[in-house]
């Protein structure tokens, strides 16, 4: 299994079907740059493909309905049998790509080659060799030659074999790929609680897709609300201690935070981008977490879908 190889195949598919996917591509300093929403409209299908790329090609992502009372919303369903590899070692936006005045959060299997951040790859003892790679950048700007040079240097891959996928936060692809981080969101929270992620065999998650807004800051609020107040996850683990598992699950959902109930969509109006640093970090978790212990057959769950916050985030007044 090579996540870089699998993701490159998906990136090549996007290039070959750019017109149907409503994306475009160009060459910058030798690198293939795929724009999914900065100068183009993008599409739901492109959002699904980008989500799969961020997870190294070892997850299935699809659109499914989400019922909020009488309102039917599109949502993302994520399934993976390689949760650590897909979500922590690839999808996690753990590479802060900053070159002078250019900044973007980087996701995807190029992180494995660059080992960003190093601690995860040391913890799980995972590495790959590859002569082609893909990096997904959350940004509203095209990278310049210096950014390309930096990525090539950090990954050790020739520029002609690098794909940079650009995702605007205020685009349909941006909204879809954030909601597709629902399984990752739960794993990240479990990791902060000291849970051994190696015990997790499978992961499934579902999260509504945030409605679009032209302001990236507003979109950041809406997409967080979808995950933290509307997202649910299900994991299969293998552990010999149900009491410990029960305790961990009780602390895992967003409702365990002292700041639970605050709408991020409303907070961005007050704090701007600083909203990320104004809240208790423990709130960054799915609304619902369910874990099945395959060793004992027990199932533990905690949290709830918060319809009130979701309705405020969606701009519904009644």
Give me the secondary-structure topology:
Layout: H1 3-16, H2 18-21, E1 24-28, E2 31-35, H3 44-54, E3 60-68, E4 71-80, H4 83-91, E5 95-99, E6 102-107, H5 110-114, H6 118-124, E7 133-138, H7 145-155, E8 162-167, H8 172-179, H9 182-192, E9 200-208, H10 216-230, E10 232-237, H11 242-251, H12 264-271, E11 288-293, E12 299-303, H13 307-313
Parallel strand pairs: 2-8, 7-8, 10-11
Antiparallel strand pairs: 1-2, 3-4, 4-9, 5-6, 6-7, 9-10, 11-12
Mean pLDDT: 96
Please compute the radius of gyration using only Cα atoms: 19 Å
The count of β-strands is 12
Q: Enumerate how many helices there are, as a single number.
A: 13
How do the strands line up in the largest sheet?
A: 1-2-8-7-6-5
| Largest sheet data | 6 strands, mixed
Shape: globular
Based on helices, strands and strand pairing, what is the structural class?
Answer: alpha+beta
Residue fraction in strands: 15-25%
Distance between the termini: 49 Å
| Strand/helix succession | HHEEHEEHEEHHEHEHHEHEHHEEH
Query: Runs with pLDDT <50, length 5+?
Result: none
